[in-house]
Design brief:
alpha/beta, Aspartate Aminotransferase, domain 2, Aspartate Aminotransferase, domain 1, seven-stranded mixed beta sheet, five-stranded mixed beta sheet, 14 helices, binds pyridoxal-5'-phosphate
Length: 384
């Protein structure tokens, strides 16, 4: 089977997963082992110790590479562990330019951990790619992009950033968690590295925390493999299995997330008690054309502000929702509602938060794959 020629909907099911050699098991077995028998000192098959490599994790890593059209995949204990590994490529004094309205946990890792180790971060509004160029210095090493952004749903032109990063010989990384490879494949648009919180759409069932990196270049992959093994933030075989299983239905889930997301975004936009809806599928969304160019659909993530922009109203709506569960995270089959200012973005100072639009009245929806009429009915009664 020549894997890289397969279509996406086939790769999600077969990528990296041939039937197991021992007994022909069709599903990748969960190799729940830390170590492997050696025939003679230092002589072993490719597995010696499960921090270095584990067959279930290997299958997942190959699957991740396959669905992102990459050469090499690496799986980590969480999305943040994956980002942590990327930052360890750099040295004190190196500068990194990152998207301004970044996932709160990434911002915290950058500011509260890696700044202490001498890395310098610049946070930039990347909707105009020219803003990035003004921050580039001889010490700049990495451009870190999140698109669509969380929770403001801004879209950044990946091809334009790629041209810029190549011109200045910078590493270009994309956190592709929100879009998933079903909607957007950054390596094909010129990125050097793709990162995922597989906790979200890839896992898809809110039952596992896991992170991923995918790259094309061998030397970069080798450096990251070294960090993965030396720092040791790997995922276990059971978690690897759960994400492998999740990926098998990514395409059908994403299709429904997009359909339900579109229905709900348009419903909210017309609702008299709603002030503003953020969703890249609207033709008047400021980056709609770029979204259309680089994404296959607009996804199921929507943010909105109730009429009058009062926190008390937002709080009441959130509390009154029943089918939508108030919870952290996103990308699972069930619909979730979140309050970014106190939840995902609680670790960002209020002033910085509000500058990018994360006001106290902002509500974020992760639209699941339930019957959309039940979701609308739930919103209708909560808004009433
Ligand atoms: C959740 C998330 C992360 C962090 O991933 P974990 O698996 O929770 O560590 C990073 N980026 C984005 C966009 C996320 O939504």
């Amino acid at each position: 089977m020549e894997e890289n020629k397969l279509k996406f909907n086939t790769k999600v099911i077969h990528g990296g997963q041939a039937p197991d050699k021992a007994y022909g098991a069709v599903m990748t077995p969960i190799y729940q082992t830390s170590t492997y028998a050696q025939s003679s000192p230092g002589e072993h098959s490719r597995y010696a110790y499960s921090r270095s490599a584990n067959p279930t994790r290997t299958a997942l890593e190959k699957s991740l590479a396959s669905i992102e059209n990459g050469m090499f995949g690496l799986a980590f204990a969480s999305g943040l562990a994956a980002i942590d590994a990327v930052l360890k490529l750099f040295n004190p004094g190196d500068e990194i330019i990152a998207t301004e309205d970044l996932y709160g946990g990434s911002y915290r890792l950058f500011k509260r951990i890696f700044e202490n180790y001498g890395l310098v971060f610049h946070f930039v509004n990347m909707q105009n790619v020219k803003h990035i160029e003004t921050q580039i210095t001889p010490k700049t090493k990495l451009i870190w992009v999140e698109t669509p952004t969380n929770p403001m749903m801004n879209i950044i032109d990946l091809e334009a950033v790629s041209i810029l990063s190549k011109k200045h010989q910078l590493l270009f990384a994309v956190d592709n968690t929100f879009a998933s490879p079903y909607l957007q494949q950054p390596l094909d648009l010129g990125a050097d590295l793709v990162m995922h919180s597989a906790t979200k759409y890839l896992g898809g069932h809110s039952d596992v925390v896991l992170g991923a990196l995918i790259v094309n270049e061998k030397t970069l992959a080798d450096k990251l493999y070294f960090i993965q093994n030396a720092s040791g933030a790997v995922c276990g075989p059971m978690d690897s299995f759960l994400v492998l299983r999740g990926i098998k239905t990514l395409h059908v889930r994403m299709q429904r997330h997009c359909e339900n997301g579109a229905t709900i975004a348009h419903y909210l936009a017309k609702h008299p008690k709603v002030e503003k809806v953020y969703w890249p599928g609207f033709v008047d969304h400021p980056n709609h054309d770029i979204a259309k160019k680089q994404m296959k659909g607009f996804g199921g993530m929507i943010s909105f502000i109730p009429k009058g922009s009062r926190y008390t109203d937002a709080k009441k709506i959130i509390e009154n929702l029943n089918v939508f569960t108030l919870a952290e995270s996103l990308g699972g089959v069930e619909s979730l509602v979140g309050h970014p200012a106190s939840m995902t973005h609680g670790s960002i100072p209020k002033e910085d938060r509000e500058k990018v639009g994360v006001v106290d009245a902002l509500i974020r929806l992760s639209v699941g794959i339930e019957d959309v009429s039940d979701l609308i009915a739930d919103l209708e009664q909560a808004l009433a």
